[in-house]
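@channel anyone free to eyeball this complex?
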Amino acid sequence: MYNKGTIIPGLIIFVLFVTFPIWFNGFKAGTPPKPELPPGGEKKCVESVEYMRANHMQLLDEWRDNVLRDGNRSVVTVEGKDYRKGLQMACMQCHSNKEKFCDSCHTYAAVNPYCWDCHLSPKEAASKEETR
Ligand code: HEC
Ligand code: HEC
Ligand code: HEC
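replying in thread with the prediction:
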């Protein structure tokens, strides 16, 4: 003989108990970083956030080709302000804290773009200015 009234809740509790480590760790480890908004107070990116989140790497490649292959350092206008295409000349003008912006995601996603082997981060650029 069994009692439906206790077996079903019993099963539910058992399943929750057994799977607890999975979903508990899932929630903790799965919290993505919150990249810092531009400290300068800009409200919009060069494209929509969704687009940027998914495609900023391709956009940077495109821009590099525009500038280096086609000699076309055209201008992007965001909220009435002009930026010349480039890593330092556009992206980092707004996202001036590389550590709290680019790096926060990249560390989380375990990617390490090699761009900074050559391109200066805003911090490095500032310290160069000082020693000049
Ligand atoms: C081996 C050195 C080197 C590496 C590594 C490198 N770049 Fe560059 N990049 C350059 C040089 C040199 C220019 C030309 C600078 C100029 O004409 O203003 C340039 C220009 C660019 C430009 C257009 C102009 C500008 O000033 O930003 C973009 C965009 C760019 N690189 C993006 C990237 C990205 C993204 C990465 C990483 C995936 C990267 N680069 C890695 C050397 C490098
Ligand atoms: C005019 C200032 C400005 C420029 C230039 C700019 N951004 Fe942004 N970017 C922003 C703002 C503001 C946001 C957040 C927008 C929002 O939350 O609606 C953002 C969002 C993003 C995001 C998504 C962040 C998230 O929370 O998921 C990425 C990635 C990004 N930018 C990368 C770049 C790259 C790479 C460049 C250069 C190609 C660039 N941005 C140029 C202002 C700028
Ligand atoms: C919202 C999170 C987020 C932010 C903010 C962000 N990135 Fe990324 N970035 C990623 C992820 C995730 C990848 C790996 C994507 C992939 O492999 O498909 C990546 C990859 C890249 C790559 C290609 C690297 C490679 O080895 O393939 C470049 C270049 C890059 N990011 C530049 C930047 C720059 C410059 C900034 C700051 C202006 C920035 N990203 C900000 C999430 C972010």
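from a first look: The pocket of heme C (ligand 1) is lined by residues 60, 63-64, 67-68, 86-89, 113-115, 117-119 (CB under 6 Å).
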